[in-house]
Amino acid sequence: MSGAIAATLLVAAGLYAGVTGARRLARGLRHAQALDVVRGIRRLVIALAAGAVAGGVLTGQTGFVVLGAVFLGEELYETGVLALILRSSAADSA
Questions:
Q1: Nearest C-alpha neighbor of 49 from the set 26, 28, 78
Q2: SS (H, E, C) 9-78
Q3: Are the beta carbons of 69 and 50 closer than 8 angstroms?
Q4: How far does CA 74 lie from the centroid of its chain?
């Protein structure tokens, strides 16, 4: 029972992150703002990882949980470094 509740919360968080990420990504592409594009991609990655973890919780397979956690960690690190590079280059040009 508690696994279903956890999966429901993960899916709800994933849906929220996916919707807001898609909006931010679209806005960043529309206005050519690199940081908004990176932040939108980051939220879409969070949505994907939450879905993988929710699937692992529902099926009872730890492989999906581990895959979601490792994927999330790697992607957050990657987009964090990219955002840091973009911010530092924006500060240098100002």
A1: 78
A2: HHHHHHHHHHHHHHHHHHHHHHHCCHHHHHHHHHHHHHHHHHHHHHHHHHHCCHHHHHHHHHHHHHHHHH
A3: no
A4: 11
**pLDDT tens-digit series, residues 27-84:** 999 998 888 999 999 999 999 999 999 999 999 889 999 999 999 999 889 988 988 8
How many other CB atoms sit within 10 Å of the CB of residue 10?
21
Judge contact between 76 and 68, C-beta under 8 A.
no
Query: What's the predicted TM-score (pTM) here?
Result: 0.85
